[in-house]
Amino acid sequence: MFATRSFTLLCRRSAASAWRNNSQSAGERLDISGIYPPIATPFTQSEDVDYQRLDDNLKKYGSLPFRGLVVQGSNGEYPHLTPQERVEVVKRVKQALPEDKLLMAGSGCECKSLLLVTPCFYRGRMDSQALINHYTKVADSSSVPVVLYSVPANTGLDLPVDAIIQLSQHPNIVGLKDSGGDITRIALLVQKTRSQDFQVLAGSAGFLMAAFAVGAVGGVCALANVLGQQVCDLAQLCVSGRWDEARELQYRLIEPNTAVTRQYGVPALKQAMQWFGYHGGVCRSPLKPLSKADLEQLRVKFSSNGWL
Amino acid sequence: MFATRSFTLLCRRSAASAWRNNSQSAGERLDISGIYPPIATPFTQSEDVDYQRLDDNLKKYGSLPFRGLVVQGSNGEYPHLTPQERVEVVKRVKQALPEDKLLMAGSGCECKSLLLVTPCFYRGRMDSQALINHYTKVADSSSVPVVLYSVPANTGLDLPVDAIIQLSQHPNIVGLKDSGGDITRIALLVQKTRSQDFQVLAGSAGFLMAAFAVGAVGGVCALANVLGQQVCDLAQLCVSGRWDEARELQYRLIEPNTAVTRQYGVPALKQAMQWFGYHGGVCRSPLKPLSKADLEQLRVKFSSNGWL
Amino acid sequence: MFATRSFTLLCRRSAASAWRNNSQSAGERLDISGIYPPIATPFTQSEDVDYQRLDDNLKKYGSLPFRGLVVQGSNGEYPHLTPQERVEVVKRVKQALPEDKLLMAGSGCECKSLLLVTPCFYRGRMDSQALINHYTKVADSSSVPVVLYSVPANTGLDLPVDAIIQLSQHPNIVGLKDSGGDITRIALLVQKTRSQDFQVLAGSAGFLMAAFAVGAVGGVCALANVLGQQVCDLAQLCVSGRWDEARELQYRLIEPNTAVTRQYGVPALKQAMQWFGYHGGVCRSPLKPLSKADLEQLRVKFSSNGWL
Amino acid sequence: MFATRSFTLLCRRSAASAWRNNSQSAGERLDISGIYPPIATPFTQSEDVDYQRLDDNLKKYGSLPFRGLVVQGSNGEYPHLTPQERVEVVKRVKQALPEDKLLMAGSGCECKSLLLVTPCFYRGRMDSQALINHYTKVADSSSVPVVLYSVPANTGLDLPVDAIIQLSQHPNIVGLKDSGGDITRIALLVQKTRSQDFQVLAGSAGFLMAAFAVGAVGGVCALANVLGQQVCDLAQLCVSGRWDEARELQYRLIEPNTAVTRQYGVPALKQAMQWFGYHGGVCRSPLKPLSKADLEQLRVKFSSNGWL
């Protein structure tokens, strides 16, 4: 009955419940700080899921200092996968994931078979109280920690600050991924929830440094599919207080990030992955390939910033 | 692979293919003119689908001069139904539907088991060409006629006029349900597609008369769940050119219509159904019941217009 | 102290106060029903106001069955005129205006020297009560009848329905020009204010017929600068209940109307005026001339509908 | 002929032209880094400008480490001032301004009598090229340096990045005030214009620290009317690289800042000024006083952050 697209459930490769017992006895929350790529789903030319190439990508990601991976997000073309494909993709990711990495999934990883839509559908009726009720129900019943997810560009609904503050007190809600990019809001959320040990992740590499500056602890960044090491470097510079170096690196990531997200979308992300040694490939219909002009512009966004 | 939430596939209770052969030999398109309620789904107090009460409603609707019924729309809380429940709801509706009525369904009625999301998800990439490609693919492969569906309030995406004009030439695309309510656009669409015998339906009772005035031939109207006869009367007055009477009736439907749609949503629709002898009942979470103040306002919207 | 861009004050060429005394003793409101072009301001090549060509246009408009003229609207490039130019333009229009025509002006016609901005500036604070207070103050102190003006595309602020209903009871507020084009709202406004003899004008030729269908009594239409007789014909067909003929004419006006307003703006309006025997000419900076491609498209919008 | 609301012209109390000659011979741009309050205009109970109280405020501001003052912005209720009042207010501010402070004015300071509207009026036609043409014309003819001003919440128009980059090369355009708060955009603008010695100012205290983190050099902050020393302290902490202290101070300024700007507007700004020893007073109509409930909420925003 739960709508979980606005949620991200956390799974460790093994022993999620073991962890949970431990962490609860210790009174500590799961540490989710760090960088996560929301992974893409490679397809064959006939638009079937290419599991072999997915495995190849996962192997490469395994050598990068990511905190974990996100599956079944919009960058994975999740809305265009069948339920069976979703299950299989998550299974593959779990198998490839190193022991110490986290897996965040758009909807329950191994357990759930129902496809459950996001509560933004009736957004006109989704006031703070409705959202608090709903998310509390999900968090109560989830065997794994929950990360809230606010992405107004997709849902037309910004999870209200007062709802987040109240939900941050739930023992099974450990953080928030905020993709809106309103840095004032992110700072306010950090201020208002830090007594709860609540953790805020930036939803994009474009404002990652600014988010760290105001107290965020990591990011879920599409660009990390392409420039994974560099995004991790930026996070590390921020954590170390080397802000001048961080700023220079941040500048060079903005245009590539915008290009593979808002500007040209998943087809651009997959194209850029090809340039950097990953398997991207075609998108599933109705997503179209990039036009030649867009492709050229995309290349410029990377080359003019010194990445190609 | 197809995203079909933006589509509405038409089924007659029986013999869809028979009809199809007939109509094709006659070179005529299916006549979809008339009024359709997008039916609500009654739940028990424990939020299970109440199939018995659904049947009761369907029986009552059977006696009204509707052209047909729409299932699996947002008024049916379709996003909060499981795949199994969706199949069962459609089955019930098909059983109850009189021979001469049409059934429009948000996704394939009896045949398809995959749940397929709407192509608005990557709306930033959904230009006219992408949408034309996509919808053509669906219409090519569908065994039943297709009605386009543009609902920008929900999808953030207005199906572009040029795409609709081109798609109107497809032999298996018979019409459009337009819920945006931009009357200039609706008039333009009628003008530009009438050589194709393409049929435009208004997506709301609020602008039903104006839509008829500029050439629409019917409507899919949430309010028809409550005031079904009256909405049909309004359509009939328009078709007969009795515009002065139509105007007076239209006025009285605007506030009730806004109240059960944009203003208070599905909980209000179900409450109003109760007042008029239908089974509404609770909504499934996270939709909340109306507050007392909203309930009182809802009643005023009906009573001040002479319906209660 | 009053912000009057949201208002339109009505002046008859002479004897506004005489009329006012008469009408008040008779207990009747000024009849504003009919069509008004919001006139353009011709410039010379050096971007000075070309008063001679303005006079020429006014002479031609004098022979058309307009109810009156609107000056100092956005189509007159009012925001780019100096206060002195505004005064002079209004003076010229008053001189040219036949006795029986009305003059509506964006801000007081002959008298006022202060330029007063619209109350939409602090739109976040402009709730219904603030707007009612403000407009009541203006209407109380105005020596000529007032027409409310709601144009959300420009102001980001839709004059709320409840405010309009209350303001319709003011003896010196005679009507509303609504440019939003939400036909449901227009119908509701007519329904809710007709006991006050309040008159609603459509703010565009694009939805003029639909507005008449739901009870509007006229329109302020940029397209009337170009196709003045045709827009008046459309109004007359609606008033006479010849809806089938009206519909055919309405269809042919939609694309030309959109082209000279939302799509290509004032430069297109002035270009089209040239084609139909009026003086349009260049726009004042920073408005740019049309590109060649836009110019060609503009011509198609008129020619494909049989006007060129 | 110029629309200058999107511009801010810089005047030093004396010798603007002297400075200009000096700086040009030195080949350097005016240094605008630092904090500026956009000053409020006190009114008497009868809504007349209270010049005495304005002087009192200016005296107090003179003792704070501001880089300068901004007059004739929206916080000064500029849209509701008459042209004469605007001239007089600027005159007073110039008299009170210490030698080493800068004066930024919404439209030319001492010289101009024409009121010139912002080019956002025809925003649908204001593409990058139109805006570049326009601003270049103004900067060419201005005797004082020009600061661009992008405030999409008011104008519905975000000055495009490519236009800013090109305009940054103009010798008389020294910087940008960006009130949109999109931190990714601000970082990109700094990156793309720093070879030109172009200076970016944050348009709000809410994202001041984040703006400094990505390379901005100051801010025009409504909150500086109330907590002037604290906003200057925040800027100083950022400039000194004391980011941990800056973060703590930034947190405490977010809620007060939102309250006196977006949330409750100028009436709240003036109320808060009273609490901190400045003259605020009533607003001019149609701006209404705060309701009691809003007033109480406003107080909480300051007290819960330790300022009251």
From TrEMBL, chains A, B, C, D:
Pfam families noted in UniProt: DHDPS (PF00701)
Enzyme Commission code: 4.1.3.16
Gene Ontology molecular-function annotations: (R,S)-4-hydroxy-2-oxoglutarate aldolase activity; 4-hydroxy-tetrahydrodipicolinate synthase activity
Annotated InterPro entries: Aldolase_TIM, DapA-like, Schiff_base-form_aldolases_AS
Keyword Amino-acid biosynthesis listed: no
CDD domains the record matches: DHDPS-like (cd00408)
Catalytic activity field: (4R)-4-hydroxy-2-oxoglutarate = glyoxylate + pyruvate; (4S)-4-hydroxy-2-oxoglutarate = glyoxylate + pyruvate
Taxonomic superkingdom: Eukaryota
One cellular-component annotation, GO: mitochondrion
Regions crossing the membrane: 200-227
Keyword terms: Lyase, Membrane, Schiff base, Transmembrane, Transmembrane helix
Binding site for pyruvate: 220
Enzyme superclass (EC): lyase
PANTHER family: 4-HYDROXY-2-OXOGLUTARATE ALDOLASE, MITOCHONDRIAL, DIHYDRODIPICOLINATE SYNTHASE
Record's subunit section: Homotetramer.
Official protein name in the record: 4-hydroxy-2-oxoglutarate aldolase, mitochondrial
Organism of this sequence: Cyprinus carpio carpio
